[in-house]
Amino acid sequence: MIRRIVVVLCLLVSAPIVHAQLQEEYRFKGIVVDGNGMPISTVRITLRDVATGARIEFTSKVDGTFDRRMIPHARYEAFFEKAGFTTYTQEFDWSTSPRQIETVEAKVVLKSEAAAAQKAMGDKASKLYEESYQALEKNDCATATGKANEILKLGAGQYEYAVRFILARCAAMQDKLADAATEYRRVLALKPDFFEAQFDLASVLEKQGQHDEALKEYEKAAALKPDDAEARYNVGAMLLKQNHFDQALPHLQAAAAIDSTHALAAKALGFAYLQSEKKDLVSARRYFERYLALEPNAPDAAEIRDLLAELKTSQK
Predict the structure, then answer these.
(1) Phi then psi for 75, rounded to 5 degrees?
(2) I need a surface site. Which of 69, 199, 249, 292 has the fewest CB within 10 A?
(3) Contact indicator for 259, 275 with CB cutoff of 8 Å
(4) What tens digit of pLDDT does each residue of 189-230 get?
């Protein structure tokens, strides 16, 4: 059993994150656009159950559309978040259990930070910022970094952190990891509570193989936003990879509680319970079973099923 545990554990962080939901009552679809009606890609959308605090998280597609199915009835507070835009929130009362699947459609408009920055940076710099961020959205980093550097020469005022964030993101996208880490640190020196920059810095350090430093930065990100499932999951996953099973447990438990559809958190919890100082085989089985229920076609599903079979045999 130990050999198989090691093989599956190697897949823990590298597997793609694909979430699913077990109960379909509501379907939420629509599009996220900017003030000019242009679609905004990869907007982070969170539905928080007002009563329990449980969360469902997903992102808009490249064309700005989103379509989230399998949403259980509840009263939700929705958050639409994207770096470079002001966060938009709205409440949805879906507390009634419908007889048939109810589809809710929405068009969400996010305000660009460029508008807020206009007074601080001036019209020319503000226009450059908007163009720079749009270029970043299109993965045109040559244009994005060029315009961002122009803004820095003109003077970005209190929005220097936002301009440097563009430089950091582009460096990360181009695998210029050392440059990205430097810029992210400059961003955080200017705006210490910038969650996206903190999380991105941790990711860059992890790619560089600086695991201890990455863990520290993930912990800072989780402290900035303790109800963020991905931040808590990443802290737990890194501790798990370092064989700190008992330390990993509370972070993974938090991630699974925040987002009950987080398949990787469920799998990680299975390993944490299996290998912690006080092994809990019942909980390990429960979370492995949840992982398979959420991801029945996962690449490692067969291995997890074999592991479950061995666990059942050992318990008997």
Answers:
(1) -100, 125
(2) 69
(3) no
(4) 999 999 999 999 999 999 999 999 999 999 999 999 888 889
